[in-house]
Each structure stands twice: as structure tokens, then as C-alpha cells.
Amino acid sequence: MTAQELKNSILQLAVQGKLVPQCKEDEPASELLKRIEQEKSTLIKAGIIKKYKELSTLSADDCPFDIPESWIWMKLGDMCQLLDGVKRRGEKHPYLEAKYLRGKVDATILNEGKFVEKGTRLILVDGENSGEVFNSTQDGYMGSTFKVLFFPQVLSEEYVLYFLLFKRTAFRNNKTGAAIPHLNKELFFNMPFPIPPLAEQERIVAKIEELMPLVEEYGKAEEQLTKLNAEFPDKLRKSILQQAVQGKLTER
Questions:
Q1: How many angstroms separate the CA atoms of 195 and 7, rounded?
Q2: What is the pLDDT of residue 179?
Q3: What tens digit of pLDDT does each residue of 112-166 get?
């Protein structure tokens, strides 16, 4: 098993409710849903997010696997929205494109654009890596390939992001468009999203963060082994030739 396969396996167990035990004392996710509805209603009235359709849980027949009784299934689009930044002009800010956020290019300073604050979650909706989520490391103007990723604050942010990371391959393999690939928004919004009780979301995140450093160490060992396996035939050949020219390959 490769390090990437191990990481995927951990994330799969996490979203299936098999990574940490369930606790009877946890408030069920159905109660959490009520607080989600309240938060969204407040934000809709304030004009911060768009109006949603009425929330409704998914039936087991519409979902890819079984989840614990205290969990609920929702469509990802019932939880997440893809929004634009606030248009501003006359202020100098860096252009937050993907290459800049990856640290591969210097900042381009603009006087106008779609403004986002430091700490805003941005999701790529155009390009080969559509579905990848970034954290805005500073105030700036959002790159044209991004949307702001919104989800209710009463959910564990890290749990949502780990779910999106788990589904990143699905997003990449199902892009739309020919010349310029785009995030498949129909897939994104209709994707079944398993929601645990909030306390369990936090336990899941803690366990993942405990395991990921071990996966990284495993990955480093895997790289060293791969390098050794690649070098071994050449080193063996050179050793045999050296033994041969020194007359040590066969008995006299």
C-alpha cells in the first residue's frame, strides 16, 4: 500500500464512521441540522449567502455506503455554496492566484478585483486541479479560477475540508469542458455528504491529525525504498564488473 492509498483509506474510514467510536452521549446530527438551518437563515437575510432550497435528508438508497444511526446524509450543495468575493476598487492588494498561493510566483498587485479576507477558503473551479481547496493567507483579490467556499460555521471546518480532500480525485476525474476543464458543479452540489454529530466530527479530525504525520513518515520511507530499488540494478551491475576486472568474480 502506498502512502497515498493509506491516506485515502484513513479518510474513507473517517467519513464512513469507522475511524473513531460513536458515543451515545453525543447530540445526534439531526439536532445539529436545526442549528445549521438557523445560521443559514440569518446569513440569507443579511444577503451574505444565496437562498437555499428547503433542506431534506437523503434516503439510504441514494447514498454510497451505510453510516451510523446518529449521522445524517445531506447533499453537499445543501451545506456548501460557491460564492464570489466582494468587488472593490481603489485599494492595492495582491492577486491571489493558485501559483501565488502555492508560493511559486511573486505577488501581482492590483487596484481592483473581487476582495477576500485573510483566512477565506477558496476552491479552484477552473483548471486541471479543480476541486482543490486553498486558504487565503492574506487579504487580496481572488484569482479568476477561484470561488469562495462557504459552509456553515456550526460544522467542523476541518471535517468538511477532509471530506473534500477525500473526494478530490472524483472532482478531478469528472471535470467538464474541453479547452478549459471546470469543476463539475452538478457532481459537487449533488454529492452525498455524511454528517456526524459535532462532537464526533471533532474526534474524527483529531484522529486524522494524529495519523497524518505517521503517513508522512511512511511516505518518506516509501520514497527511499523506491529510490533504492531503482538504483540497485545499476549498483549491482557496477559491483559485478568491478569484481570481474579485479579477478574476484570466479574462483582460480
A1: 20
A2: 80
A3: 999 999 999 999 999 989 999 999 999 999 999 999 999 999 999 999 999 999 9
Neighbour count for residue 26 (Cβ, 10 Å): 18
Q: For residue 63, which of 195, 204, 198, 201 has the smallest C-alpha distance?
A: 195
d(CA 34, CA 37): 5
Contact assessment for residue 111 and residue 92, using Cβ atoms and an 8 Å cutoff: yes
Cell digits for 210? 494524529
Amino acid type, 227: K
Q: Grid coordinates representing 133?
A: 481547496
Q: Cα-Cα-Cα-Cα dihedral of 138, 141, 146, 148, to 10°?
A: 70
User: Which residue has cell 501581482?
Assistant: 108
Share of the chain above pLDDT 70, in %: 91
* The residue type at 240: I
Dihedral, 83, 89, 91, 97 alpha carbons, nearest 10: 40
Which pLDDT belongs to residue 59?
84
Which residues, other chains included, contact 119 with Cβ-Cβ below 8 Å and sequence gap of 6+?
Answer: 135, 136
| pLDDT digits 0-9 by tens, 21-49 | 999 999 999 999 999 999 999 999 998 88
Based on the number of CB atoms within 10 Å of its own CB, is 46 exposed (0-12), middle (13-18) or buried (19 or more)? exposed
Residue (of 123, 94, 99) closest to 111 by Cα position: 94
Three-state DSSP at 122 gives: strand
Mention every residue, 6+ apart, whose C-beta is less than 8 A from residue 200.
17, 20, 22, 23, 26, 70
